[in-house]
Amino acid sequence: MDVDDQYTLYVNGICVGSDDNWSTVEVYHVPCLYTKKNVFAVRGHNGGGPGGFIATIQIIYDDGSSEIVRTDTSWAVCANEEADREFMRMRFDDSKWVAATDVSGMVAKGAWPGLREAAE
Question: Are 38 and 58 in contact (CB under 8 A)?
Answer without folding.
Answer: no
